[in-house]
Write a structure and sequence with these properties.
This protein has about 500 residues and is an alpha+beta fold. It has four domains: about 130 residues; about 55 residues, Roll (SH3 type barrels), CATH 2.30.30; about 80 residues, Alpha-Beta Plaits; about 170 residues, Jelly Rolls (Sandwich), CATH 2.60.120. A hairpin with a 4-residue loop joins strand 7 and strand 8. The longest helix has 25 residues.
């Protein structure tokens, strides 16, 4: 008790000094914060005075303990205000968030209560140990509150944001605003609609926070728009960049840009991207950009398309389609030199018995050494003739290959690979056999023509330094004999 009396004398002497310091240093607009310290000071003065006047009275000790506790609370509160709310402290100490100030104040009040109880002869430790069940109940009841408290501390220690920063939570416009206060339980945001939103710190700790103020207040904004497919893309980009130039709130550096997002069903979809350092004024700037864009499009005779559909009436006629495909095959067969000898009737029959095949780039049409009995005519595309992995010839529309296999049944003499998407007309053994039966003289003419073609292919091989004799290199008379044997004529 004697030490408490001695300590009480120090507190009585320091209290007026702290009060004068508060009155001099706390700004006028924050003087309302002094009401509670003044109340504590008045109570402590009255209680200490009564205890001083009645030193032997039986209630003196209780009155002194109450006055001693009031002095401790006043000094704790006054010291915290001097550190956080005065002009001098703002120059010396870094800004302290409200949640840190509240926790520091709570710890000071707790320390004052423990010291006061100790001066009265009561050990606070005994109170805590004898109330374990009560502590557990309170812990469960305050679980969410304590979670918000520690979440708020984590946010402040991590420096995710400060008061005054503009933040966006989980990409939600409803949770986008300026931080006005970070409390021990919740954080207050002032949204773009000037509505105060109170968000629990537990939710803040779990949310994806986008700080729109850091590292700089410059942010990129996007305005989506569409243009017609009839508009030249270069003109659309130039018009959009011209429309955004000079708009209040749009920064010249970094420069605005325009990107093509997608080819939509009815329009080409674009994104006009620009930079601004006015976060709260962003929606207004977006509106002005859209307005300028409309006027610019009108002057440049560009259009903002509306949803539209192209409806095409198609009448399915299988007979007409089959006739059209037959005409295509007949036209292709007429361009093959070895078939020019056929009369129109035989050629039409050959076209009717043939078929059309499609090949993609890199696909092998025929492979050297493999058996075959088909002739190929090129309708569209480009093919490469390979011998020992070297290109010895290139084929295009109107060319043909595979005549030896068709006429004699010999294995393929070369590999033919599609160099691009190709459409080929294919003439088989059975189709040509009917033409030979109708016109046997065709075999003699074809044998002479094919023999000349083989000699030309052999010359290509020698010139390409990939000399390899053809599997079949026969004079015209011997080739004619093999054709007759193969077709049994």
């Amino acid at each position: 008790m004697e030490s408490a009396w001695a300590m009480g004398g120090v507190l009585v002497a320091s209290a007026p000094l702290l009060l004068v310091a508060l009155l001099l240093l706390v700004p006028r607009d924050r003087r309302q914060l002094l009401r509670f310290p003044l109340f504590l000071f008045a109570i402590s003065v009255v209680l200490v005075g009564v205890a001083w006047l009645l030193p032997s009275h039986r209630v003196s000790r209780a009155v002194w303990v109450a006055g001693y506790g009031s002095l401790l609370l006043f000094n704790a509160r006054a010291a915290l205000l001097l550190v956080t709310q005065t002009r001098l402290s703002r120059r010396v100490f870094p800004p302290i968030s409200k949640i840190v100030a509240d926790i520091a104040q709570g710890l000071l009040y707790l320390a004052a209560a423990v010291i006061t109880l100790h001066s009265a002869g009561i050990e606070a430790g005994n109170l805590f140990t004898t109330s374990a069940v009560l502590t557990a109940v309170l812990g469960l009841a305050l679980q969410e509150t304590l979670g918000n408290l520690f979440s708020g501390l984590a946010l402040q220690l991590g420096k995710a944001f400060d008061v005054g920063d503009w933040v966006e939570l989980d990409g939600s416009q409803a949770h986008t605003g300026r931080v006005v206060e970070v409390g021990w339980r919740a954080t207050k945001l002032l949204t773009l609609d000037d509505v105060e939103v109170i968000i629990p710190n537990g939710f803040m700790a779990k949310a994806l926070i986008r700080n729109l103020t850091r590292p700089t207040p410059i942010t990129r904004r996007k305005v989506a728009f569409s243009s017609s497919y009839s508009d030249v893309p270069g003109g659309v980009v130039e018009a959009a960049l011209g429309a955004v130039r000079g708009v209040p709130g749009v920064l010249a550096t970094p420069a605005p840009s325009v990107i093509l997002l997608a080819y939509g069903e009815s329009s080409m979809d674009w994104s006009l991207r620009y930079y601004s350092d006015d976060v709260p004024g962003g929606p207004v700037t977006d509106s002005e950009v859209r307005t300028r864009l409309w006027y610019r499009f009108r002057r440049e005779n560009l259009t903002f398309p509306f949803p539209q559909r192209d409806v095409r009436m198609v009448v399915s006629d299988a007979a007409a389609q089959a006739s059209r495909r037959l005409d295509e095959r007949l036209s292709a067969l007429q361009r093959i030199p070895i078939l020019e000898l056929l009369d129109p009737e035989s050629l039409a029959l050959l076209a009717e018995k043939s078929e059309t095949r499609l090949y993609g780039p890199g696909e092998s049409v025929v492979v050297v050494g493999e058996p075959g009995a088909d002739l190929f005519g090129v309708l569209h595309g480009e093919l490469r003739v390979l011998a020992d992995q070297a290109v010895v010839a290139r084929l295009g529309a109107g060319d043909f290959f595979g005549e030896m296999s068709l006429l004699t049944g010999e294995p393929r003499a070369a590999t033919v690979v599609a160099g691009s998407p190709c459409e080929l007309v294919v003439v088989g053994h059975d189709a040509l056999q009917q033409a030979f039966q109708a016109h046997p003289e065709l075999m003699e003419r074809l044998s002479a023509l094919v023999s000349e073609r083989q000699l030309a292919l052999e010359a290509h091989r020698i010139e390409a330094s990939v000399y390899r004799p053809l599997p079949v290199l026969l004079p015209a008379n011997e080739l004619l004999s093999r054709i007759r044997t193969f077709f049994q004529i």
